Amino acid sequence: MLRIPEPLLLQVLAHCEDGYPAECCGAFLGRVRDGERAVEEAHPLTNVNRERPRDRYEADPRELLALERKARENALSVVGFYHSHPDHPERPSATDTERAWPGYSYLIVSVREGRATGWRSWVLEEDPRRFVEEPITGSAA
Description:
Strand content: 35-45%
Number of helices: 3
Shape: globular
CATH class: Alpha Beta
Number of domains: 1
Number of strands: 8
Helix content: 10-25%
Largest sheet: 8 strands, mixed
Distance between the termini: 12 Å
CATH superfamily: Cytidine Deaminase, domain 2
CATH architecture: 3-Layer(aba) Sandwich
């Protein structure tokens, strides 16, 4: 389960709308308890993909390293990531499946004509390699 407080979810949705028509991305810092990923911070990351920004994202590796360092300094962990799907459903693509890591939540936000219209969270299973939808709750931990 992904537990994300409503103000952080609204921050993510606004970031995804602002990034339209390109894909945007970000990461979640928080804690894992009893298989539940509780989000305490949401951090936008720069999409450095310049060849296909409308349907691909690549988080800036320097920003991600700095965020991982910040997480350690504050006794938090990277618990997941988010990205938008401009004018496409909030389901993982084949590229998402190829590039994902197990053990994280992946929130995908569908943005149609500049407005967030849906969001779902997914977790990667390794065998077979596929995404499984996970519930999202908006209450704080």
